[in-house]
Sequence to fold (228 residues):
Amino acid sequence: DAKTTQPPSMDCAEGRAANLPCNHSTISGNEYVYWYRQIHSQGPQYIIHGLKNNETNEMASLIITEDRKSSTLILPHATLRDTAVYYCITRGAGGTSYGKLTFGQGTILTVHP
Amino acid sequence: NAGVMQNPRHLVRRRGQEARLRCSPMKGHSHVYWYRQLPEEGLKFMVYLQKENIIDESGMPKERFSAEFPKEGPSILRIQQVVRGDSAAYFCASSPGQGDNQPQHFGDGTRLSIL
Fold:
C-alpha cells in the first residue's frame, strides 16, 4: 500500500468547513483512498473512500486530484464532536496484503467553539 | 443493524494468565480483522480471517498469540501467558467481502490491562 503524508495537527472553528489534506504520491492505479477517524479511545470510524472520482456521503466529501497523488477530506460544517484523529489510508493492489489497513500518525483535528 | 460487537470492553489479567477477546462481526460480514493499539501509538494490523480460515497473520507475534473465526460463533483472539507489554487496546473490524472497495467497520475495542 502507498505511503500517505498528513499534517500532524489542524484547527478549525465550529461551523466552518474543515479541509484535511493527504499526500499519496506513490499510489498505484488500483488503490483506493480511505478515510477513518478515531475519537478519543473509541474504535476507528469509517468516513468515506474513493478511487478516482470525488465522493460525498452524509458525513463528508472526498476530493481526489486528477493525478490521484493527493486528496482532501472535507467536513462541511465542523462541530465540536468532530474533534478526532483523522487517518488517510490507501488500500489495494491485490495479493494477500489487501485485507489490512495500515494506519499512520494521522491528523489531529481540533474544532474550537 | 448492530455494529461490530467486542467483549469484554475491559479485561484485567495477571502476568502468566490467558486472555480471550471476542468479536462478533456485523450481520452479513464474513471477514474479520484484528488490530492492536499500544498506549500512545497507532493501530497495527495483526490478523485477517475468514470463516474457518486465516488469510493473513503477518502482524501476529510469533509466540503466545492465536486467532480463530469458527463456522459458528464469534472470532476469538487468544493471548497465552500474558506479559505487561500486552497491555493495549485490541480492535476488531469486519467487512462483507474481501474487495478493496469494501470498508472495514470497527468495534469499540477491548482494553487489556496486565497487572
About this structure: Chain B has a mean pLDDT of 93. The first strand of chain B starts at residue 5 and ends at 7. The radius of gyration of chain B is 13 Å.
